[in-house]
Amino acid sequence: MTDWLYRRTGRFFAACADGLESLLAEELSALGALDPHPSFRGVYFSSSLGTLCRVNYMSRLATRVLAPLATFDCHSTKYLYKTARGFDWSSLFDAERTFAITCNVSDSLITHSQYAALCLKDAIVDAFRESCGRRPDVERTNPEVGLDLFIQKNRATISLDTSGGSLHRRGYRVPGFDAPMQETVAAAIVKLSGWDGEAPLHDPMCGSGTLLAEALMHHCRIPAGFLRERFGFEGMPGFDHSEWRAVRAECDSLVRPLPECLISGSDVSRDAVGIARRSLQALPGGGEVRLSCSDFRELEGFSGYVMMTNPPYGIRLGMKAEAERLVRELGDFLKRKCPESRAFIYFGDRSLLKSLGLRPSWRKPLRSGQLDGRLVLVEIHDSPAGDGDSKGTISY
Question: Which of 29, 216, 233, 241 is most open to solvent, judged by the fewest CB atoms within 10 Å of its CB?
């Protein structure tokens, strides 16, 4: 039987978006993980299987949690196949279960990720045929076992996906609607803002409601995996169903109700508001989030609020000039109608920041997919004249 690496070391790897490594390390510590060590696009940590369940269920920032199986020097696909063929895969899962492989390669003699994944698949299938006379099937959409192959600088690491697919898929998003922001990035915005209900929160361009949903889950302590039907760790060797039930019950017991009028959102698109409402209603307390179909330029004031939004950028609108005009009008709206408020604005296109017309107190890099975006904080105060309308001033 192969002595898999994670069983020897007790070390796992939580992947995340570029730039969130330190924030994720803090989250993992709070969830009971030991010795978190930030690395490129993720954090290594030590954990018992019970804590591993908690991390998968509760983490808002991790995209998936991997259990390293083996690591070895790998300069060719032939050696990749030979090495992987020698592992006892039947000690990890049986031939009746489906599996799939994700692969990334960089700075290596092996340059084709799909071919590398194919070689690993062939090695696993052939090893099963040799050991038990039958093979597991590949299922790319919803596999029972997920494997990850990462080859960097001619060193291969094969890992088991303990999450069972990307953790950014919370389960509340309306199927078929392609929102521009991943849930984990929205969760990072909420976390970086420091908001936790000390002031009411409003998103004036809420779109499909991702920021509102993540704010709701954060404040009400709803586990990030609350709606997920299955996790990859449930098929791991040594998995304890009773321990997982206890972990889940403990996490669910922390959920608290949403205070009235604490979270609200609006959007000029009636369709977007309808989608946001359907998404939020999938979550506990989501029906208490107030939504309206409104143009933010026509809204009344929001004194003492936390404003949090992700304005449409040029690609989404189809024209850069329209995006610049919209951001400029957002800056005017904040200055005139949001006295004594703080605004956290995520710019997927950071060049739009200059159109806001307001100087941020801080700006933080935050990637979302291929977007090298920026999250900014603008603090808004009444002008000395105190009219709270056209003479807002910005502290920075």
Answer: 241
